[in-house]
Amino acid sequence: MKTLVELNDLSVVFKQPNNVSIHALNGIDLKIFQNETLGLIGESGSGKSTLGKTMLGLNPYGGNINIFNETLNIEDKNLVNNIRKEIGVVFQEPFQSLNPRMKIKNILSEPLIIHNKSITKDEIEIKTQKAMESVLLEKDQLEKYPSQLSGGQQQRIGIARAIINNPKLVILDEPTSSLDLSVRNDVLRLLKNIQSEFGLTYLFISHDIHTIKNISDKTAVMYLGSIMEYGDTNKVISEPKHPYTRALLSSVLSANPDEKREQIKLVGEIPKITSLPKGCLFKTRCPNPSEDCSKGTVERKLKEINDGHFVDQCCANCG
Length: 319
Ligand SMILES: Nc1ncnc2c1ncn2[C@@H]1O[C@H](COP(=O)(O)OP(=O)(O)OP(=O)(O)O)[C@@H](O)[C@H]1O
Ligand SMILES: [Mg+2]
Known about the structure:
By secondary structure, the chain is α/β, with parallel strands linked by helices. 34% of the residues lie in helices and 24% in strands. The strands form 2 sheets. Strands 6-7-8-3-9-10-12-11 form an 8-stranded mixed beta sheet, with helices on both faces. The chain has a 4-stranded antiparallel beta sheet with strand order 2-1-4-5, with helices on one face. Strand 7, helix 7 (181-198) and strand 8 (201-206) form a beta-alpha-beta unit. Helix 4 (104-115) crosses helix 5 (121-134), helix 5 crosses helix 6 (151-163) and helix 6 packs parallel to helix 7 (181-198).
């Protein structure tokens, strides 16, 4: 399978004016393969959106980002523009991400014009109409303003805008979180259909395990800006190896009311993102830390414990 994105030892630190440093991403190694959906799950503040934004060249970073066979260098504006052209982005709040003063047709033609100054009016019309067809909306909606559409229709426009330039990768940052359950399932189905129609690759960010289970081929679990577990979604969800993943899963209601699931409560303090511990980031909450874990001598790194199933190497050795 072709690797589309490879992150090596990726870190992002936001320096605050008061000299405080926010360690938003900490030593991330991750690959996104072509035509696949990688689900990124984790609590609020774990760094999910920062990961997406950093791949768009929006944050200074340490480590390495290889994307579409190029090494991202945020100083190289041409390179960043070329990479961004190949990435579509869909945000959580459809209404806030659509300019209320623009008609839908202008919202959709904007990315076409930004990335191709010489595009003709006819080409714009054909592409906007095709994008509307792909997201199952009628062409007469092109003359409307975002406020004249429902939340589900607005998110379909967000998706149409993200795919209109035939991107290689689409970053979906909580795209269904603000939608009603019935609309949410429609949008997820639509995303899957569009993915197979256009051969797209998705980075799907969510804090909802049901959604991740529904859409993702692979799943990465984030905690304090680090990946704790990664692998095939089925494996990660049915045989979680990391105590944090187990706790996340146990806090979710099962679709089967007869299924008794043990609630796992993690005790211990969550370290401050402004002063992270040495070594394992999970050691303050680990149910059974090894001696090396407590000392903080284990390097943060993923270890492959089964075919394609990775767990933080320190946590893999703890109970
Ligand atoms: N531009 C920024 N400047 C300073 N701190 C930032 C910036 N962007 C993000 N952060 C901080 O980085 C950490 C990770 O934020 P991020 O938005 O990536 O989390 P998230 O996992 O997407 O959370 P949520 O589920 O709430 O969207 C948080 O502590 C956040 O406050
Ligand atoms: Mg976020």
